[in-house]
Amino acid sequence: MKRTLIVVIILCINIIAYSQTAPNWLNGDWSGKGFQPLDKQTWEVEFSHNSEKNRLNITYPSLKCSGLWELEFSDEQTAIFKEVITTGKTNCISGSKVIVKRIDESNISVYWDSEIISGPDAYATLTKVTTNWLQGLWTGIGYQNNDNTNWTVELNYDNNKQMAQIFYPSFGCNGIWIIKSIDEKKAILFEKILKGADKCTDGSFITVYKIDNTHINIIWESLLIPGIDASAILTR
């Protein structure tokens, strides 16, 4: 009896020590649809894990609630969490056990289990949100709204650095675009002109929309010029 108790205690200590950091295979942003067997309802799921900051955030946009996943155990294929709802507590059950299983590099399965509902509360398959659609070299023609002029644009985006080099050959100026946010269809960046600031407006906010795999739509907006300054369609 005492020997069994000691073994159990040692195992518990090992599990706690091993599971301080969520696994790297969960790193990134994930999204999908959850399914509730009890009422046969579906709802949106957005999960974000940053391994460097060890933060695990869960959001249910259609249910208007969100919170954190507290890690209890993980290995190369499975992670177990306790879900703590921090906003919209009347809309979502807090305290559920969440079991996440790795399917492959781009997909995970999630099971929610609480003491309130018998059996699994809900389940979902989530897909990793890809943000590398902006990667590469893009070229095209920009259009200036206030004076109806056209000019050449060259954009080279590095997904690993989350930053782009921007060139305006017609004006002889260039700079960098610093990423503010990016999802699977849209990116918001801040433009810093490094050369030729007397010819190009510094400090513009840039919105990039994905059209397809080889075309993007760019909108330039500056505090110095009301409305949309300029726009362009670039080709990879």
Number of helices: 1
**Helical percent range?**
under 10%
| Fraction of residues in β-strands | over 45%
> Mind describing the biggest β-sheet?
8 strands, antiparallel, barrel
Largest sheet, spatial ordering of strands = 1-2-3-4-5-6-7-8
Mean pLDDT across every amino acid position = 84
Q: What class would the helix/strand composition place it in?
A: mainly beta
Order of helices and strands: HEEEEEEEEEEEEEEEE
The geometry reads as: elongated
CATH architecture call of the largest domain: Beta Barrel
What's the N-to-C terminus distance?
69 Å
CATH superfamily label of the largest domain: T3SS negative regulator GrlR
Count of the domains: 2
CATH domain fold name of the largest domain? Lipocalin
Quick description:
With 236 residues, the protein is mainly beta.
Tell me about this structure.
The protein has two domains: 18-128, Lipocalin; 136-235, Lipocalin (Beta Barrel). Residues 1-19 have low confidence and may be disordered. The relative contact order is 0.10. The chain is mainly beta. The chain contains one helix and 16 strands.
Could you outline the blueprint of secondary structure elements for this entry?
Blueprint: H1 2-18, E1 28-36, E2 41-50, E3 55-60, E4 65-74, E5 78-87, E6 97-104, E7 107-113, E8 122-128, E9 136-144, E10 149-158, E11 163-168, E12 173-182, E13 186-195, E14 205-212, E15 215-221, E16 230-235
Antiparallel strand pairs: 1-2, 1-8, 2-3, 3-4, 4-5, 5-6, 6-7, 7-8, 9-10, 9-16, 10-11, 11-12, 12-13, 13-14, 14-15, 15-16
